[in-house]
Amino acid sequence: MATMEQVRGNTYVINTKSCCIPCYFMDPDTVILLDSGIAGSNGRELFELMEEKDLTVRAVQTSHAHFDHNGNHKPLREKYGATIYASVFNAAVMQNQVAMKSYLIDDTWHELLTKGSSVFCAVDWVIDADQTHVTVDDVTFEVLPLPGHSPEHIGFVTPDGVAYLADVLVSTPQLKEIRLPYIICAEPHLETLKWLRKQKYSAYILAHRGWYEDIGPFIDQNEARLENNLQMTWSMLSSPMTQEECAAALMNHLNVNCRTTFQWMSCNQTVRAMMQYLVDQGKVVKVIRNNKIYYSWV
Ligand SMILES: [Zn+2]
User: Fold this and answer.
1) Is a pLDDT exceeding 80 seen at residue 115?
2) Binning pLDDT at 50, 70 and 90, where does residue 41 land?
3) Cis omega before residue 209 (within 30°)?
4) What is the whole-number distance in angstroms between the Cα of residue 188 and the centre of ligand 1?
5) Which residues contact 18 (CB under 8 A, 6 or more apart)?
6) Which of 126, 106, 129, 127 is nearest to 116 (CA)?
């Protein structure tokens, strides 16, 4: 079963097998969750914990619509009447399957309907792009724009001054396992890391995983990992390659062994984001030849 750990004041973290779910106590019986983990085993752990502690979930805030962050929104809404909050983009893809298809372009329609079923959920409250705070009854959270890992990826600061950073940073142990931390767009992600370095909150919660008072080393490691992966991507392109050829070459070089199409899709999207960043930086060009786009050194 999941465990619950106090971070500061009314801010706790729920440790499930695969991720950390921040939890804010509005009163001794009522909580607000920041994300909801993965459907299935995570969900069972989460619901068991809520029942054991006799808690009601008043609301769920969404950092982004990835299956390991919003997999239990729907059952929480159904069981507790939890109000679901999400930003404009994430609300769109959570509520519209074709919108989700335009986001997860490598899935077939039927794969999306099957795999994605747990991430579809009605959203009760849309967080606008320029919104700096979200209030649930009399509890106000600061909204942190943290783009790059995914579109409209956002964090939240609880009234105790604890910042939930969702997937911006991967912790050191997980960074050893994850060779290509997922990003959808490199430039905003690098800017988010730079911005984060200047912030000061009393504690930080990472979805993957744990909570920390000092995230400086993680910022350095995550930034170094991306810079290193960008350098390797650039090295691969000494001879022209298509996007998929370059992704496969980099994955082989890093000993990434994709066992599922989902793993491949995550890695491929990350490499695509890095190749596009190199084009924007003027280090790589893309040309069309024989109806294929090739990337190569300038
Ligand atoms: Zn994510």
Assistant:
1) no
2) confident
3) yes
4) 15
5) 37, 38, 41, 42, 68, 208
6) 106
Distance from the alpha carbon of residue 290 to the mean position of ligand 1, in angstroms: 35
Query: pTM higher than 0.85, yes or no?
Result: yes
Rounded to the nearest angstrom, the distance between the alpha carbon of 282 and the centre of ligand 1 is 28
Non-local CB neighbours of 51 within 8 Å, separated by 6+ positions? none
Domains annotated for the chain, with CATH where assigned, are 3-167 (3.60.15.10), 225-297 (1.10.10.10)
* pLDDT for position 105: 85
How many Å lie between the centroid of ligand 1 and the Cα of residue 283?
Answer: 28
Helix (H, G, I), strand (E, B) or coil at 179: coil
Pairing outcome for strands 154-157 and 203-206: unpaired
Distance 240 CA to ligand 1 centre (A): 31
Three-state DSSP state, 142: strand
